[in-house]
Amino acid sequence: MSASLPEFPWDTLAAAKATAAAHPDGIVDLSVGTPVDPVAPLIREALAAASSAPGYPATAGTARLRESAVAALTRRFGVTGLSEAAVLPVIGTKELIAWLPTLLGLGAADVVVVPELAYPTYDVGARLAGTQIVRADSLTQLGPQSPALIYLNSPSNPTGRVLGVDHLRKVVGWARERGVLVASDECYLGLAWDAQPFSVLHPSVCDGDHTGLLAVHSLSKTSSLAGYRAGFVAGDADVVTELLAVRKHAGMIVPTPVQAAMVAALDDDEHEQVQRERYALRRAVLLPALRAAGFSVDHSEAGLYLWASRAQDCRETVGWLADRGILVAPGEFYGPAGARHVRVALTATDERINAAAARLS
Ligand SMILES: Cc1ncc(COP(=O)(O)O)c(C=O)c1O
User: Fold this and answer.
1) Sheet containing strand 181-185, strands side by side
2) Of 78, 108, 163, 357, which alpha carbon lies 20 to 30 A from 310's?
């Protein structure tokens, strides 16, 4: 099976990583979006308080968790009309994305549409299920074909691009007419800087009708819980019920202490705002430093990445930065259209971000 999957992209960065690590003041690793800030005390306390968990948790999650997820989407993102039965916890959203086409029973006759520049796991999930894969950002690129599943990701990893309400509405309307399922990966929805992103479940996008729509929400970035493996999927109640029915058999269950921690994270907006502020400050340091060093920075109006270019092949840019002790991800990891960009993550300590800015100047 692994032979049908691409080479694990980060494995190809070993040489650049060794170069960057040789910098006398150490590497600044901006190549992955892994959070570095401490988990908020109220979340850790909730995890610890739930640590005596001898019995199996329910795959559907506790009623309390589903309530908290609905309340958080309503409060933070203006989602309306979501019922608790239409929410399902997942073991981090990478897990859900990697298995979604399989869980839906898709196969060789089906087409999965992923953005031209995209988080690699959309492609991996389609490959695991053996579906056809089409990279497209516009509906006109799809012509008359009717895919089974179409991914949206706004704000985008890697580009930080935010899709406007009109764009989202158009995709939802088009998909509805054809019975296509839309999976909107909203991992970075809470991290907006220069543009306002919308959930696919927001009434201005879907008119309050969640039929054929899934919103995928990770707690990894906004609550710095990547190590807990915590996310959920919400939207079309029938699709969520079907996913639950399969996942119950497959043992895809979020541990009880993590479910309790998720409740604490979803009920509290303050720690999220503190985290957002940290990233805003890091962005305010790194963005001008990249520009001053001659990079152009495209999109990047939201999310945790700067999509930067020196108008040369991305591997050359990776090398140029590695010579300065800075490791970034080549744009080609995310699709052929990224061949002349690099993705620079904001997920490093203030000290390391300041070091990167100093090395660029
Ligand atoms: C676009 C996108 N979706 C999903 C994920 C997966 O997040 P997790 O599995 O931690 O929930 C990531 C992680 O980087 C991402 O960038």
Assistant:
1) 87-90, 231-235, 213-218, 181-185, 149-152, 111-114, 132-135
2) 163
| Ligand 1 center to 144 CA (angstroms) | 31
Q: With 90 as the cut, is the pLDDT of residue 45 above it? A: yes
Which atom of ligand 1 is closest in space to residue 94's alpha carbon? 9
CA of 127 to the centre of ligand 1 (A): 18
Express each pLDDT in 79-96 by its tens digit. 999 999 999 999 999 999
For residues 264-285, give the mean pLDDT.
98
How far is it, in rounded angstroms, from Cα 67 to Cα 206? 21
Q: At residue 143, does pLDDT exceed 90?
A: no
CA distance 301 to 280: 11
User: Looking at ligand 1, which atom is closest to the CA of residue 220?
Assistant: 10
First to last CA, the chain: 46
Domain 2-38+271-360 CATH superfamily:
Aspartate Aminotransferase, domain 1 (3.90.1150.10)
Q: Which CATH number fits domain 41-268: 3.40.50.80, 3.40.50.2000, 3.40.30.10, 3.40.640.10?
A: 3.40.640.10
